[in-house]
Design a protein that fits this description.
mainly alpha, two-stranded antiparallel ribbon, elongated
């Protein structure tokens, strides 16, 4: 039985696997194994992939004798609940605090175009009463 769960309810290893799949778009068990820090054995990776598939986070396609795994949700849709969880946990639900922290952490200067886009998003939020 498949059940959809948010990414925030995943174990550390399951989240690491999802990060690999979102970064690369798709991966085999061997690809995941090679990308994991302090990787467990191949059998453990296969078991984790099966668990993620049963939870409804990933699916597989057969390519010859191997399975290629893909996320079931686009990255932006999967990221929203995760970001909401971070916002609530670390920033008391404050978008302002989170944006301020992101700007403080930014390693590069924002371009004029990026600042204009952020201003447009803020203006749009004001018009929508958010």
């Amino acid at each position: 039985m498949r059940t959809k769960k948010t990414l925030s309810n995943l174990s550390r290893r399951e989240r690491q696997i999802m990060e690999v799949l979102y970064r690369d778009g798709q991966a085999t068990a061997g690809d995941v194994l090679a990308a994991l820090p302090d990787a467990p054995g191949y059998s453990a990776v296969r078991a984790l992939l099966r668990i993620l598939e049963n939870k409804g986070h990933i699916r597989h396609v057969s390519e010859g004798t191997r399975y290629v795994y893909l996320p079931t949700l686009p990255r932006d849709r999967a990221g929203r609940p995760a970001l909401a969880s971070v916002l609530e946990t670390f920033f008391d639900g404050s978008t302002e605090k989170a944006v301020a922290a992101l700007l403080d952490l930014s390693k590069t200067e924002l371009s004029g175009d990026q600042l204009d886009r952020l201003s447009q998003l803020i203006d749009q939020a004001r018009m929508e009463g958010r």
